[in-house]
């Protein structure tokens, strides 16, 4: 892939709870932050065209007439709504008119569109959604967090290879340490899937460091943690729920009396930083790894910062040839 | 089961990281808190006999000569070390000399001893380990948290019935709400296991309220949450790890400067309360449900408070006829 031309990212203007306003604000931030990025906006003409016309030629509008709703059945919607912002976005990457696609719309529809329209990288049997977790040190990648509820050991091996490529290209980790999420340290621990995946990873993946338990997920001991999409999704949401519940309780403790409120005001800057660190917006979106093109799926609640960060991540993935790296890694095993 | 006689709990004097001292301190606390409880201590003669001789006839010493180590293979150790504190403890319940067994030793060995020596309740195919999670409101029970890494839908139905009985008998919940841990709200979401378990629970269990996602586990929306032992174990340990990481970061923020330290000192009492609420010691131990007798397994790091609380929970389970309730619930389906 040539590095000489600017990177073009398709952005779904109408995906997400705060679309289109906050999505467009995020695009504006991304354009300001990176003079080499170009954007193609997909969505209704009355939204995308006025915005493009004011963006100094760096934003192209591609008007679409259909909308995939959050309640739509993902695969059916992708097949029946071919002129939706999501399907057209994936097609622009497929046709080489753009390098990457970002949407904060229906996760299921984005996955289906990317898989059906862009296609899978040769040799990848199941694309996976990765997410970046805030750890004590360098952030860590967890995958799959929901694309595949039932997995085979070979899927987990590919998730490991794809996660390794992502950690290297986007997080800049030199030699990523890859661990298997399990319920004990020894190779013989865990479900049949976990035991078989352990054996396969130990055989095929030089970067494999062994099992990691739930207690150590945030301890910064691994750069990539692989698991099936059921466990990964439960883990991700539990982490979000626990953070929210705990910070809420800390806040309650601080707001209890006039004296504690005063004390809390002193601590506020530090706690705001902590909250930002735990905020999914900081990492912008979750890459769908294994499809033939860069696809970043945003949280439904993505605000401008999340959108700008997702675009930044997409550009890094394109410039680091994430897709090519995954293709080579998968071809080796 | 007659309520007229005092409840006798066997306590493994040498199980746990802080055994025997903190285990014996916990026994002393339990004896002081409940004049009707009697204890049988299993362990080496030089530990259990001196303690029993000073306990006003409420503690009986049963000297054992073998020790199951943390590294031993659980089932093999239970078969070969028949005179260990764990195996003898389970046997005392089996023989009707005690009503309940508590150990903070090897979880695997306790499970194996309880299952092999006490036996399973008629109709129960897989005993499960339950744990009490601190939620915003009433505590909530999560099971299985590690006894069965691979499960069938029928296992999850029995876990639900056993968890319902435990919530009712020990937590005093009038009409427990039982939910299935899953990665979406709809019945068609999740792994094949989760989908089939949903259908079975919806058909057989009147208390079933549907799926619950990781984000809502601590929100107090369910009294009993069922899942397979792999997902449950990952979830439990992740929750512990997240709490620890977050409270550590809050603490770091508070210790940053002299001014924040001063502010933190004002907040300390509230935060100590919060930490106690999240402390596994508060709930004392995890019941192994489905074996024919009450068996409570303590955290390896159990201190005196955990031991005393575990004994209290064991007494409640005996007095509320937990075993009989589980037997009746399982017989109905």
Describe this entry's structure for a reader.
The structure is a homodimer of 333-residue chains. Chain A is of the alpha/beta class. Helix content of chain A is 47%, strand content 16%. Chain A has eleven helices and eleven strands. Chain A has helices at 21-33, 45-53, 74-80, 85-94, 107-118, 153-169, 192-204, 229-254, 258-278, 304-319, 322-332; strands spanning 7-12, 37-43, 59-63, 100-103, 128-133, 140-143, 178-181, 208-212, 224-226, 286-289, 294-297. An eleven-stranded mixed β-sheet of chain A has the order 3-2-1-4-11-10-5-6-9-7-8, sandwiched between helices. In chain A, a hairpin with a 4-residue loop joins strand 10 and strand 11 (294-297). The longest helix of chain A is centred in the last third of the chain and has 26 residues, at 229-254. Chain A starts with 6 loop residues before the first strand and ends with a helix. At the A-B interface, helix 8 and helix 9 of A face helix 8 and helix 9 of B.
Entry keywords:
11 strands; 11 helices; alpha/beta; homodimer; about 325 residues; globular; 11-stranded mixed sheet
Brief summary of the model shown:
2 copies of one chain form a homodimer. With 333 residues, chain A is α/β, with parallel strands linked by helices. Chain A has helices spanning 21-33, 45-53, 74-80, 85-94, 107-118, 153-169, 192-204, 229-254, 258-278, 304-319, 322-332; strands spanning 7-12, 37-43, 59-63, 100-103, 128-133, 140-143, 178-181, 208-212, 224-226, 286-289, 294-297.
How much is the average pLDDT of chain A?
A: 92
Please state roughly what percent of the residues of chain A sit in beta strands, choosing from under 5%, 5-15%, 15-25%, 25-35%, 35-45% or over 45%. Answer: 15-25%
Count of individual helical segments of chain A: 11
Helix share, percent of chain A: 40-55%
Rg result of chain A? 20 Å
Helix-strand category of chain A: alpha/beta
Amino-to-carboxy terminus distance of chain A: 23 Å
């Amino acid at each position: 892939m040539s590095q000489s031309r600017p990177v073009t990212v398709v952005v779904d203007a109408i995906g997400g709870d705060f679309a289109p306003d906050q999505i467009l604000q995020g695009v504006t931030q991304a354009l300001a932050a990176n003079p080499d990025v170009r954007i193609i906006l997909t969505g209704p003409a009355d939204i995308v065209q006025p915005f493009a016309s004011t963006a100094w030629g760096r934003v192209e509008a591609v008007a679409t007439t259909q909308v995939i709703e959050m309640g739509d059945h993902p695969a059916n919607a992708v097949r029946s709504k071919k002129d939706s912002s999501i399907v057209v976005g994936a097609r622009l990457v497929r046709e080489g008119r753009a390098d990457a696609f970002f949407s904060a719309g229906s996760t299921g529809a984005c996955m289906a569109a990317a898989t059906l329209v862009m296609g899978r990288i040769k040799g990848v049997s199941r694309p996976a959604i990765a997410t970046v977790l805030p750890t004590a040190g360098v952030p860590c990648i967890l995958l799959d967090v929901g694309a595949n509820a039932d997995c085979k050991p070979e899927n987990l091996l590919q998730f490991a290879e794809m996660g390794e490529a992502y950690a290297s290209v986007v997080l800049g980790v030199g030699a990523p340490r890859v661990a298997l999420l399990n319920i004990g340290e020894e190779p013989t621990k865990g479900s049949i899937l976990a035991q078989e995946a352990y054996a396969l990873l130990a055989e095929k993946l030089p970067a494999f460091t062994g099992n990691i338990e739930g207690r150590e997920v945030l301890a910064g001991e691994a750069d990539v943690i692989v698991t099936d999409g059921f466990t990964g999704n439960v883990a991700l949401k539990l982490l979000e729920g626990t953070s929210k519940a705990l910070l809420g309780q800390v806040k309650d403790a601080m707001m209890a009396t006039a004296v504690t409120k005063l004390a809390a005001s002193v601590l506020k800057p530090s706690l705001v930083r902590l909250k930002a660190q735990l905020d999914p917006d900081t990492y912008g979106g979750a890459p769908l790894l294994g499809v033939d093109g860069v696809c970043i799926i945003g949280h439904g609640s993505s605000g401008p910062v999340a959108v700008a960060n997702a675009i930044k991540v997409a550009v890094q993935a394109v410039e680091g040839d994430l897709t090519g790296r995954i293709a080579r890694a998968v071809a080796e095993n």
